[in-house]
Design a protein that fits this description.
21% strand; 11 helices; 297 residues; Spore Coat Polysaccharide Biosynthesis Protein SpsA, Chain A; 5-stranded mixed sheet; glycosyltransferase; alpha/beta; 2 domains
Length: 297
C-alpha cells in the first residue's frame, strides 16, 4: 500500500486544484491531509473537500509546521497500512504515469529518497537537484549551470515532492521539527545519506509546482515573499550548520550570517524594501536568532 501525504496551511483552493487531480490520476491507497489551522472557515472548507474525496484528515489544534505536519501525516498513513509515501506540497501536482515512474525509483532500493524533475506551470525547470556549500551555506540549484569550482557541497532534494519507503522513514526517524519551515528537506536529505541511503533525481518523472503560491505575500509584488519565508530561511541555515558541521564550519557560516540574510531578503527584489517593514523585521530577527543558535552550540 502507498499513500499521498500533504501538509496544508490555508490552501484549500490549491488542494482542490492539485491534490484532487493527482489523487484521481495516481490512485493511491490512501490520501492523508494534515490541516494546520488558520481560520474556522478554512478548516471547514478542508473538511468538506476531504469528505467529498474520501481523504483521511488530520486536524492539529496548533500549527505543527511543515516537518511536524509531515511526521503526523506519515504516522497516520503507516497506521492505515502504507509502506510508501508521496510527500506533496499543496501547490504541486503530478500525472499518474509520472507518479508510477517516481515510485519505481525505490524498487530494490528501499533506502533511496526520490524526487521528480519539477517544472513551473509555464514549463521551465524549477528543480532538477540542488546542493549546499559547506564553505558558506549557500544553496544552488543544479539547473542554474553554475559550478562550485571544487568547493565541497552536499546534495539535497526539495520537500515540494518526495517519494520514500517506510524502511527509509524508520532509518531516519522522520523530519526534524525544530526547523518548523524551510531547510528541513536539506536536513532530511543529509540524514538519508548518513543512514546509508542515497538521493535520486528521477528525471523521467515530472511534477508541476506553482512556486510561492503558499508563501507569497498578497500585499506585495509577485516576486516578494512572506516575512515567515525570510525569517526561517535566514535562521534555519545556521540550525543546519549546528546539526552537521564541526566547530570550524559553524564559525565560518556564522561569519556569513549578514551576507546570507541579505541574499535571502533580495530574493524578493529591492522594491519591497521601500513598501514594507516585513523584510527588515525578518532580516533582524532571523540574523539575531541564527547567531544565537550558533553561539549556543
Amino acid at each position: 500500500m502507498w499513500a499521498i501525504v500533504v501538509v496544508n496551511y490555508g490552501s484549500s483552493a490549491l488542494l482542490a486544484a492539485n491534490l484532487v487531480a493527482t489523487a484521481a490520476a495516481a490512485d493511491p491507497d490512501v490520501v492523508v491531509v494534515v490541516d494546520n489551522p488558520t481560520t474556522g472557515a478554512e478548516r471547514e472548507r478542508v473538511r468538506e473537500l476531504a469528505e467529498r474525496e474520501q481523504w483521511v484528515l488530520v486536524e492539529p489544534t496548533a500549527n505543527t509546521g511543515f516537518g511536524g505536519g509531515v511526521n503526523l501525516g506519515v504516522a497516520t498513513a503507516i497506521e492505515r497500512g502504507a509502506t510508501g509515501f508521496l510527500l506533496l506540497n499543496p501547490d504541486a501536482r503530478m500525472q499518474g504515469n509520472a507518479v508510477s515512474v517516481l515510485r519505481e525509483g525505490t524498487f530494490g532500493a528501499p533506502l533511496t529518497l526520490c524526487a521528480p524533475r519539477i517544472v513551473t506551470p509555464a514549463g521551465t525547470v524549477w528543480f532538477a537537484g540542488a546542493d549546499v556549500s559547506l564553505v558558506d551555506g549557500r544553496t544552488r540549484g543544479h539547473t542554474k549551470g553554475a559550478t562550485r569550482g571544487g568547493e565541497e557541497a552536499w546534495d539535497w532534494l526539495t520537500g515540494a515532492c518526495l517519494w520514500l519507503t517506510s524502511t527509509l522513514w524508520e532509518a531516519t526517524g522522520g523530519f526534524d521539527e525544530e526547523y518548523f519551515l524551510y531547510w528541513e528537506d536539506v536536513d532530511f536529505s543529509r540524514r538519508v545519506v548518513l543512514a546509508g541511503g542515497s538521493l535520486r533525481l528521477v528525471d523521467d518523472a515530472v511534477a508541476v509546482h506553482d512556486e510561492g503560491a503558499t508563501h507569497r505575500s498578497r500585499r506585495q509584488s509577485d516576486r516578494s515573499k512572506s516575512e515567515t519565508y525570510y525569517y526561517f530561511n535566514i535562521r534555519n541555515r545556521m540550525l543546519f550548520a549546528t546539526r552537521f558541521l564541526d566547530d570550524e564550519g559553524v564559525r565560518r557560516w556564522r561569519a556569513q550570517v549578514a551576507t546570507s540574510a541579505r541574499e535571502v531578503i533580495l530574493r524578493g527584489g529591492r522594491a519591497q524594501l521601500l513598501r514594507s517593514l516585513a523584510p527588515w523585521r525578518a532580516y533582524v530577527r532571523g540574523s539575531r536568532d541564527a547567531r544565537r543558535i550558533a553561539d549556543a552550540r
